Amino acid sequence: MAYGHLRRALPLLLLGALLGLTGCTGVGVGDAPDSGSATYHVWGLNEASSELAGANRSVVLNGDLDNDSKAFFAVEGSWDADRFTLDDASSGKVRELAGSVPERTGDPNCVRLVLVDGGLVTDRAVAAIAVADLPETGPVTATALD
């Protein structure tokens, strides 16, 4: 019986080890709040390895190679019904990063940033920003993943 549990857990353990070696991290997808202010960590979104639809949604994060494969930085802003609007300082940080996301993550297909809430038990991805669609001025918005 104990071997059956190990056999089922082995693929997850191997995936975790592989993600660790490549500088990627996997997190679940959380529900976005309807309103209020919040602070999130910004990561690159690994589209090819993420599962954004279905019952077992998960996100694989591309870290910043210039920062030991950790998050790029934190952003602040506020929620309305379906999007997160970054404050002016955070919008500026995202605009500065936008042109170098593939190089900074090592993933040439990384075209979106994901906002991750560091919870008490686990991290959860809650919203994404398409770097190609950033406005030249004004606030940057992220779309909820839920």
Task: Throw out a few tags for this protein.
146 residues, alpha+beta, eight-stranded mixed β-sheet, 3 helices
Structural class: alpha+beta
Largest sheet descriptor: 8 strands, mixed
Q: Provide the β-strand percentage band.
A: 35-45%
Helix content: 25-40%
The average pLDDT is 85
Q: What is the rounded Rg?
A: 16 Å
Can you characterise this structure?
The structure is a single chain. The protein has 146 residues and is an alpha+beta fold. 25% of the residues lie in helices and 39% in strands. The protein is built from 3 helices and 8 strands, in the order αβββββααβββ. The model is unreliable at 8-22 (pLDDT under 50).
Tell me the layout of helices and strands:
Elements: H1 2-22, E1 24-29, E2 36-51, E3 58-62, E4 73-79, E5 83-86, H2 88-98, H3 101-105, E6 112-118, E7 123-130, E8 141-144
Parallel strand pairs: 1-7
Antiparallel strand pairs: 1-3, 2-3, 2-4, 2-6, 4-5, 5-8, 6-7, 7-8
Summarize the structure.
The chain has 146 residues and is of the alpha+beta class. Helix content is 25%, strand content 39%. Strand 2 (36-51) and strand 3 form a beta hairpin.
